[in-house]
Amino acid sequence: MKEGKGVWVFIEQRGGKVSEVGLELLGIGRELAGKVNEKLEAVLFGYQTGSMVDELGAYGADTVYVADDPLLEVYNSDAYAVLMQELIEQYKPGMMIVGASNIGSDLAPRVAAKVNTGLSAHCIGFDVDEHGKLLGKVPGFGGAVMADIICPEDYPQMATARPGFFQKLERVEGRKADVVKVEVKLRQEDINIKVLGTSKEELTARPVESADVVVAGGFGIGGEENWKLVEELADALNGSVGATRPPCDEGWADLESQMIGQSGKTVRPSLYIGLGVSGAVHHLVGIQDSKVIVAINKDSKAPIFEAADYGIAADFRQIVPSLIEELKSITG
Amino acid sequence: MKELHSVVCIKPVPDQRFWDKISLDPKTQTLRRAGIPVALGPLDLNALEEALRIKESRGGKVTVVSMGPPGTEEILEWAIVLGADEAVLLSDRAFAGADTLATAYVLASGIKKLGDVDLVFLGNESLDGSTGQVGPQVAEFLGMSHLTHITKIDLTGDNKLEAKFRIEFGSIDVEVKTPVVIAVDKEINEPRLANIWGAVWAQERKINCWSINDVEVDRDKLGLSGSPTQVAGVTTIELKRKGEMLTGEPADIARQLVKKLQTDKVLPEA
Amino acid sequence: MSFKMTHEQELARKIALEFAEREIIPHRDKLRVEDEEFEEQLAVKEAKAGFHLAMIPRDEGGTGLGQVGRVVMEEELSAAYPRMVSSLHREFAYVFAKATGGVVKEKWMPLILKGEASAAPFINEPQGGSDLMNYTTTARRDGDDWIINGRKCFISDGHKVEFGMILLKTGDPKDPATRGARSMTAFIVEEDMPGYKVERVEKSMAGNLTATVSFTDVRVPGNYIVPPGVGRGISPVFLAVWDVGRMGISAMLLGCILGSCRSSIQFAKERVLYGKPIHDLQAIKHRIADMYIDLAASRALTYRAAWLRDQGMNSSQEQSIAKYYCTQAAIRASLHAINIHGGSGVMDEYMPQMYYRYAPCLIAGGGTDEIMKDTIAASAINGANPVMGANPAETSGFYIL
After folding, report:
1. What's the total number of domains in chain A?
2. Please, which chains are in contact with C (at least 3 CB pairs closer than 8 A)?
3. Which of C15, C22, C23 sits opposite B198 (nearest CB)?
4. SS3 for A267-309, per residue?
5. What percent of chain C has pLDDT over 70?
6. Chain B residues whose beta carbon lies within 8 Å of the beta carbon of residue A322
7. Which tens digit of pLDDT belongs to each residue from C42-86?
8. pLDDT band at C401 (very low <50, low <70, confident <90, very high)
9. pLDDT, tens digit, for every residue of B76-121?
10. Are B166 and A68 in contact (CB under 8 A)?
11. What is the torsional sign of CA C217, C221, C223, C224?
């Protein structure tokens, strides 16, 4: 498409509840809609969506396009992508933002290919240029730079937004959105993918992204045995354990919940301690918002020392036990 | 049971062991990658592993496909060492500068040329780009369904499989008819080690190099000019801090550090 | 003449290196404390990776990579952690099965190809290895079978092998027809034969194990005699074992040199003295240069000996030269590595001490320095081609391979 109007955000729902990232998108979407002076429109696919639609109005949507059908109860890329394509071709939005959750990352590129437009993926910030084009901010080239990705010719201008980077708006009770009901003609027989069921995992540890103290280990930890020291120090500080990518690849740490950096979590603790972390830029971008950064690495030339407030060029195996001992004196 | 032809799309990434050697050119704002060896991305290995396991349990063959400059053969060869039967390198100046859509378009053109394909595997994200867009987009160009973030696959029939789609704190179990494009997660399997037979296979099995003349493509959809997204600008992120080094015996260092952190008010006073 | 590795050989090195980086180097702490369970699992993984298939020809189910391919792989594995590389025993299993043929080959070959069989030569006796005429282990005929009695020692990992080839006396010292050299015969023995007993297992200073095995009325069928047959003594199979052994051991020694170089260079870059990394110090530079010279020379000698074998030529003399030189070089290089590492060099968790302890453990295998020198001198003085030439293949044990 060569034109479009309106800022669309895709609202992910699970189990009949609007996801947090969906509300965050309404927040950034409102800002963008203000800049281009267009409407903020939410797209919701699900089943028995009534209360969710009200919620979207309360969180700032001007319009809600809602497709309500048992087939849409659980995410199904075949159904969602086809329906989204129909909707885009009918209503021609100017921008479309999707959360970079697993579901959003599954859906957005397919839709972009279907309507033949570009997609800026995993954005952590947005802006609009002087021509009203969407600029998606992506930490690029290994993380040392922020790249502005633009889609100059095609509409809608699509992007996925990293969860946790945008603020949702204040909830206004009773604020209503216009509701556009979308007819769903698609049936299970028309598509290839069939949902068999869903399962849910309980959250156990405190997520690293919301921890006030983060102790992260890098490849310099050297082995699973030594990894215990990372955990012990985190315990002593009542903090959470994070990791760079190699320990996750080695299986010492969990890729999903513990990896910090460009393609993992962004942390904002008051204290970050890196053990055996060399300080590759793609990790540093994930810790740059920490209030104080401490680095312990036996390689005195490790780049992390330049990005740290305090550096200790020594073997963490010698330092950590002393540090734990010292901490006991203040925690009792 | 029907034998299955699996295609695995792989992407050359800088070898992780040399990541500290990659630097940013302050003038051009691009990465200096010269002399950095390329390797298969970790998730590419999981994708290849899944295809090899299916070949071992069901029969059939595995073809690896990559788009990249000359030199990419090295990682295709390693895929053969690990057990792939055949490899295709899509390499042409016209392909260069592609974003994910234009990349997916070229990969799909290569896969179409291979003919009968039952399964297309990819790593869910690549090590350097990490966007994971190529899978769904290849699927669109091939007219297949796609699945991403897959942690488990069970072949349940000649043209049917069940898969587990991992989502945040949970999963969705799906059934899908083949052909299908599947982007796998790390948890799906443990990639194998190379076997000494790999050195023999690498001599016997072929890496085909296909240029723009070997595949059916619309030139307008290729490379930089065929990419709908562009880089509008770059800003450098300032990461430098004061970098005060603490020295001494371990106990001494620990005392200094705790004191400083207390002064900075990130640790409580005794 | 070509000094270039083939692409296949380069890939073989890469495969071994990847194995080392994933399965050995991250787990050195387990090897250091001799975690038996871990070592067993590692041996199984090594067998599955098929390194021992290098020297088995394609038409017999191997990869046909040859001796050069084999040497570069064992070099990398040994650099990662030197130890009695278990491939050697799987390789011996092939040599014995192939040399014996018949039922022995039928029984063992499928297992060998799967990496599920290993074997050792049972040669040494408590009073020595090279003095064959004074062996006390004997076999006497009983119908179609033979009954073995005696004891063999210094069998590397002898408590783990499934079978072996034993050299013993079948002759009668009073009978001129079966006396002296004509008294020696080689048999295949299997660990589950009644009367076969691992008497004790001893540990070397580097942690590798050697066993003493005793034979009490062990009944062996006649078709377990290794050709050419009874009283034919030092048969070609022994020359083959010697070749395979010397080249394998040279490769392990190469690994000690390579590993010493790698850890020294890494250490010299990381250790800072007077504000500069220590590789800036001339004394350190020269030590590193010395190690590299030894690495280059040892590789040149070993690869050439292996390459000559791959061309079907006898390289016994070259192998002795290589093994002698590699032994000396490995001890020198590991000592340099200790010097470069300073105090850390002798600590358990650093590698130099391991190379330094391990290299001397390889002195005896395939013959001590003196035996190597004896054979080198013998071919220098009496050989048909005294000027480093390769002899035609028929004098080599390898014609059986």
Report:
1. 2
2. A, B
3. C15
4. CCCCEEEEECCCCCHHHHHHHCCCCEEEEECCCCCCHHHHHCC
5. 92
6. 250-251, 253-254
7. 999 999 999 999 999 999 999 999 999 999 999 999 999 997 557
8. very low
9. 999 999 999 999 999 999 998 888 899 999 999 999 999 999 999 9
10. no
11. negative
Phi, psi (degrees; rounded to nearest 5) at C105: -65, -45
| Residue of chain B with shortest Cα separation from A309 | B243
- In this prediction, residue C145 carries a pLDDT of 96
* Cβ within 8 Å, pair C29-A250: no
Task: Considering only the C-alpha atoms of chain C, give the largest distance between any 2 of them, rounded to a whole number of Å.
Answer: 80
**Residue A175 sits in the same domain as residue A218:** no
- Residue of B168, B184, B186, B227 to mutate, testing the A interface (most A Cβ within 10 Å of its Cβ): B168
CA distances from residue C372 to A251, C221, C317 in whole angstroms, order as listed: 47, 35, 9
Angle (nearest 5°) at CA A270 between A122 and B237 = 45
Fold of C7-114: Butyryl-Coa Dehydrogenase, subunit A; domain 1 (1.10.540)
To the nearest whole Å, the CA of C20 is away from the closest chain A CA by 14
| Backbone CA torsion sign across A176, A180, A181, A184 | negative
Single-letter code of the amino acid located at C13:
R
CB A101 within 8 Å of CB A12: yes
3-state secondary structure A67-87: EECHHHCCCCHHHHHHHHHHH
Report how far residue A292's alpha carbon sits from residue C309's, in angstroms, rounded to the nearest whole number.
Answer: 63
- Domains of chain C, by residue range, sit at 7-114, 119-224, 236-400
Residue C128 contacts by C-beta under 8 Å, 6 or more apart in sequence? C134
Residues C312-335 as b or e (16 or more Cβ within 10 Å = b): ebbbbbbbbbbbbbbbbbbbbbbb
Q: What is the DSSP string of B161-225?
A: EEEEEEETTEEEEEEEESSEEEEEPGGG--PPPP-THHHHHHHHS-EEEE-GGGS---GGGSTTT
> Which amino acid, residue A318?
Q
Total length of chain B? 270
Q: Which of B193, B199, B200 sits opposite C22 (nearest CB)?
A: B193
Q: How far is the C-alpha of B186 from the C-alpha of B175, rounded, in Å?
A: 20
Domain that holds residue A178: 7-190
Contact B262 A330 (CB under 8 A): yes
d(CA B250, CA A314) in angstroms, rounded, equals: 9
What does the block give as tokens for C139? Answer: 């076999």
A71 near B CB under 8 A: no
Q: How far is B71 from chain C (nearest CA, A)?
A: 15
Count of domains for chain B = 2
Helix (H) or strand (E) segment spanning residue C317 = helix C316-341
User: Around Cβ A32, how many Cβ atoms within 10 Å?
Assistant: 22
Nearest to A298 among C26, C27, C270 (CB): C270
Is the confidence at residue A267, as pLDDT, over 80? yes
Rounded to two decimals, the ipTM of the complex is: 0.86
Query: Residue A222 maps to which CATH number?
Result: 3.40.50.1220
pTM: 0.84
Mutate to test the interface with B, among A157, A192, A260 (most CBs of B within 10 A): A192
Distance CA C179, CA C265 (A): 57
Neighbours of A172 (CB within 10 A): 11
8 Å CB contact between A285 and A261? yes
Which domain range does residue B266 map to? 241-270
| CATH for A82 | 3.40.50.620
Distance in angstroms (rounded) separating the CA atoms of residues C152 and C135? 10
Which residues, listed in sequence order, are joined to residue B31 by a DSSP beta bridge?
Answer: B24
Long-range pairs of A26-31 with CB within 8 A, sequence gap ≥ 24: A26/A56, A26/A59, A26/A60, A26/A61, A26/A168, A26/A169, A27/A59, A27/A60, A27/A166, A27/A167, A27/A168, A27/A169, A28/A97, A28/A126, A28/A161, A28/A166, A28/A167, A29/A60, A29/A97, A30/A60, A30/A169, A31/A126
**CA distances to A320, A322, C104 from A231, in Å:** 11, 15, 55
- Quick one: tokens of C178? 């079966």
